[in-house]
Amino acid sequence: MTERKKNIIKISVSAVLLAAAYIITEYILNGLPFWANLLIFLPSYLVVGYEVLFEAAEKLFKGRVLAEDFLMSVATIGALIMGDFPEATFVMIFFLIGEVFEKTADRKSEEAIESLLQICADKATVLIDGKETEVDSKEVKIGDIVIVKVGEKIPIDGIIIEGKTEIDSAAITGESLPVFAEEGAKVYSATVNLSGVIKIKTTTTFDTSTASKIMELIEESTEKKAKTEKFITRFAKVYTPVVVILAVAFAIVPSIIFGDFRKYIYSALTFLVVSCPCALVVSVPISFFGAIGAASKKGILVKGSDALEVFSKIRAFAFDKTGTLTKGSFAVVAVHPEKIDKQELVKITASCEKYSTHPIALSIVSCLGDRPMYEVKNTKEISGRGIECVIDDNTILVGSEKLMNENGVNYKECHHSGTVVHIAVNGEYSGHIVISDSIKPSAKKTVEKLKKAKIKTVMLTGDNKETAKTVAEELGIDEYYSSLLPQKKVEIIEELIEKQKLVTAFSGDGINDAPVLARASIGVAMGALGSDAAINTADVVIMDDNLCKLPVLMKISKKAVRIAKENIAFSIGIKVGVLILSALSVPNIMWFASFADVGVLILAVFNSMRTMRG
Predict the structure, then answer these.
(1) 168 given a catalytic annotation
(2) In terms of DSSP bridges, do strands 316-320 and 456-460 run parallel, antiparallel, or are they unpaired?
(3) Number of H helices, E strands in the chain
(4) pLDDT of amino acid 39
(5) For range 295-311, the mean pLDDT
(6) Half-sphere exposure of 614 (CA within 13 A, CB side)
(7) By CB distance 3.0 to 4.6 Å, which of 51, 210, 453, 551 could disulfide with 188?
């Protein structure tokens, strides 16, 4: 049985015992003495609290009195002394629930690293003595000749020595548009061979390949990423020693001066009970968990209170481009005809591309809609260049600038950002169509809101400089970096965090983004289209890919932190006031003490529940 299941069972058993104890003492055996009530409630308390008490005692003997366990022990033992038995158990239950959430988040991070193993090719086909031999990818040496067939993943980094093809490099760069590669081109592990058999001379081993480096980056980035200390733990480091020192002082100093040691020991115990931080121990976590619940209702998954707290402090926000700022799907954005109309140009091009599965071809065919196509004959695909075919005895060329140059067609350049498809009929230029990844409608609004909040915006992409510049300028992003591999993205994030001292968030959706998501102060994955690796590595997941949810979460996180601080100020203020009244020997001080403990707890909890409204 896993530790998580054990903790859930403990919480359930404790809750049942607590309910039973409450019914017995309130309705069946009402009026029992203190010790009898303590014995009835003690089982529910010990089921969830014995490990905390044990760890607190162990750390105390080692001199670590500032630990969170010690604060929990002081708080709940004080509640038991006051006779607030249900409250003591409730605090321990809530503390254990928090532990379950935290360990679940840690487990998800470990699963993310394991899931990345799937991006690597386990086997490689190596040419040995002229024969194709399948071996484990880890056995491939530098200089070996590897054969990669259509549809296979490239197992090791290398250089193409024979053949030409198109490469899907989405796993490495995040860009879904295939790249043409021929002899002399460098190719990377984990990318996919789409259209032709190629031979590669390896330049790395499996352990030093690009895919392996990505996995190492995630592990290193996760270790480098400073774990935000729990809000209540930081508070405990200050509050606990102050309370303990003052309680000891209440017991010793007056005893030395006035005598009556037993009287002042009791006063010190009263002081400790009044100082019991139950209101804080309960209300602060509720502030964060309530906010997490409010975020989830808006389609935002936040993995723990630490992530929420960090999100409230963001001073820089970095974005991946494809799939995050843009839709990650290609569409026709411009049609520029020569001597024929736009519809005719699209119809000719779509007819030539109708049997292709290439993303560019699919976008052009989609643009034509339900309109009929021409009958096409003698289709000839020219790898890395385009298509040649015949329509009504007219020779049609559809493809790149290289195809036009090779056939002596005088084409016109296009200044639109995107992939340009040129068309020629019988050697005469007919125009071109521009295909590009479109920007998400929510992207511009989100960037504007972040900039209004004085948050620096950055774009990191594996796409080319021209495309990156166009997107960055259209959105008004402060800085952009192009043609990046995952390692470089991590370096830029580290520059923002370590040198510029900015709490930095990063939002991405691909496997290649996982190392950056792990390294950033806070990682935000786009959940609807994002890879499992990105989602599991991130601290926050936007479930519907709507970037406008980011400012919403920022508002929720700041509200949660503000309310948590309000509870701390209110609780400590009331307790200090009661302690001063106690020192002045004000009559009926125990009534005030009860309010400072239970009353403040109730008020603080109600205040915390405001975060549930978002």
Answers:
(1) no
(2) parallel
(3) 21, 22
(4) 92
(5) 81
(6) 12
(7) 210
Q: What single-letter amino acid sits at 403?
A: L
User: Concatenated DSSP letters for 67-104?
Assistant: SHHHHHHHHHHHHHHHT-HHHHHHHHHHHHHHHHHHHH
| DSSP letter string, 233-263 | HHHHHHHHHHHHHHHHHHHHHHHHHH--HHH
User: For residues 231 and 568, is the Cβ–Cβ distance under 8 A?
Assistant: no
Catalytic residue among 144, 157, 320, 463: 320
Cβ 462 vs Cβ 480: under 8 Å: no
In the structure encoding, which two tokens stand for residue 74, read together?
């002081």
How many Å apart are CA 244 and CA 169, to the nearest integer?
A: 60
3-state SS, one letter per residue, for 165-211: EEEECHHHHCCCCCEEECCCCEECCCCEECCCCEEEEECCCCCCCHH
Please compute, for residue 561, the number of CA atoms within 13 A of its CA located in the half-sphere on the CB side: 15
Question: Could you give the CA distance from residue 126 to residue 22 in angstroms, rounded to a whole number?
Answer: 72
Q: Is residue 401 within 8 Å of residue 392, measured between CB atoms?
A: no
- CA dist 448 and 566 (Å) reads 30
Q: What does the pLDDT look like over 4-53, one tens digit per residue?
A: 788 889 999 999 999 999 899 888 888 889 889 999 999 999 999 888 88
Phi and psi at 388, nearest 5°, equal -120, 135
pLDDT in tens, 375-394: 999 888 887 788 999 999 89
pLDDT band at 328 (very low <50, low <70, confident <90, very high): confident
Summarised one tens digit per residue, pLDDT across range 204-220 is 898 888 777 666 655 55
